[in-house]
Predict the structure.
Amino acid sequence: MKISAYHKNIGDTVTLKTGYGGLEKHDKVYISKVFTETHVPESALSLPHVTYGGTGFFYDKAKFLPAEMEHIKPDYNLYDGFIGGTDNAGDCKTAYKYFTDYSIGYTTRFCFRKCGFCVNKNYDGVRAWAAIDEFHDPDRKKICLLDDNLFGFPEHYGILEQLQKIGKPFQYKQGLDIKLLNDRNAALLASSRYDGEYLFSFDDIADSDIIIRKLELWRNYDTRRTKLYVLCAYDKRNQYDGEFWAHDIKALFQRIRILFQYKCLPYVMRYAPYKNSPIYGTYVNIASWCNQPRFGRTLSYEEYCHAEDKRNGGNTATIRYLEAFRREYPDIAREFYGLRY
């Protein structure tokens, strides 16, 4: 949207491409990719008039847009034709709400935590990035912030106060750093027109003590729906041996139990090596259970697996994974299979 706005401002005609055909008809083509597994034809990337970028291509080495593109109000009309032309255009209000309802941008960028799994691992701190006015469209009903770690920015209180003054519902789509929660920012969040569920993260069982303290603090200010991203299948040692997998599943269950105790929803984030795990299916089951709140809030883990098996006619992989893990790790199964919200 920023690239489009820049080119329209200098008098160019801009077309949104949704496929790779006919690229030769354009003077300049931009291709972006967020996820590494997304396939882009090499024939498109090799064209001389194509520029491509994003974390999907370069991960933590991705370059930023030139300043004249980065710091411009996005072209919020770029996707109008795409939305209106889809087969499920009648569902646009919900399926495409970020295209239609939100001003989107960053007020800060980067992080100081240097997590090995994160695209921000090369940075030393959080930096101011853009004023809200830079991307705020007064005609849009809501604001979506993409900041990497807002609370890591010393002046973040002023940003929250400015959002309150604007008065529109807003959300931090990437989540907020719960370990940096304090009375001041918790009070600001709880008294704001926050949009949807609050998002934090609980990436390591070693952080249990501080996460529990912060959840207790948070629940003093707000009892509304709160979700925490829960990372699993990430081995800091980069060994991914047999000892790691059982320990990781146990730590995942332990974190889910803590979150349930504070009436918070876990959202299980599976790091890519889980696909090669000997207990791959257990990761699939747990994520399916937790990441669908209608099940995570009403059924225990074992109840969910049996309900899913029954729904699909019986003798499914869901039950095979459940029972195989029980046979291999009976103590973990005994402790956590009955876990419920």
Remarks:
- The mean pLDDT is 95.
- The chain is about 40% helix and 10% strand.
